Amino acid sequence: MHQQLPKEIDPFRLASNGLRLEGTLSLSIMSRLSAAIVDDQGDVEVTLQFDVDQTGTPYMVGNIKTALPLICERCMQTMQYDVDTDLSVGLIRHESQAEDLAEIYEPWLIEGDKPVALSSVVEDELLLAIPIVPKHEHACLPEDLWQSGDEVIGEEEKPESPFAVLAALKKKD
Ligand SMILES: [Zn+2]
């Protein structure tokens, strides 16, 4: 059922032809992503529909799905981080067109007529999907261990906001 995905695409041409791309891409071809993941053996499931909407805006909607092996910052073990991201992207040729795009679209600026690498589009979305501090959803360390960790202490000992201090000072005047 899965077709071979093209390496390079002309998004505007795909949109004017109303084409759908469906298939898998290997994580191993995404060099920027490889720095962020433990290994690049997995695949990304990609479903992209290109079309032109009623207002004449070429767009791409779809979904990318994969599991990225990340390091949990709490227990420092590998964890599988599920990515299941819906995309809604408006294709533009000039930066100035971004503000005219309907709000449902993220702008995708495509300059010139050169085809773009399909993997780079998917890779950008994956990089955005990675949490800043990856952590297992379950308590992966015994509670007494990680509750004494920096982040909990940081929350409990949050210093009073400087504005609150200022307000208190002003009252004394
Ligand atoms: Zn963990």
Bound molecules: zinc ion
What is the overall number of helices? 6
Q: Helical amount among residues, as a percent range?
A: 25-40%
Low-confidence stretches are: 153-157
User: Which outline best applies?
Assistant: flat
The profile of the biggest β sheet is: 5 strands, mixed
Topology as a string of helices (H) and strands (E): EHEHEEEEEHHHH
Radius of gyration: 22 Å
Quaternary structure: single chain
Coarse structural class? alpha+beta
The overall pLDDT average reads: 87
Strand content: 25-35%
Instruction: List how many beta strands DSSP finds.
Output: 7
- Strand order, sheet with most strands: 2-3-4-5-6
What's the topology here?
Blueprint: E1 8-9, H1 11-16, E2 20-26, H2 31-34, E3 43-52, E4 58-71, E5 78-92, E6 106-109, E7 116-117, H3 118-129, H4 143-147, H5 150-156, H6 162-172
Bound molecules: zinc ion (ZN).
Zinc ion (ZN) binds at residues 72, 74-75, 77, 79, 136, 140.
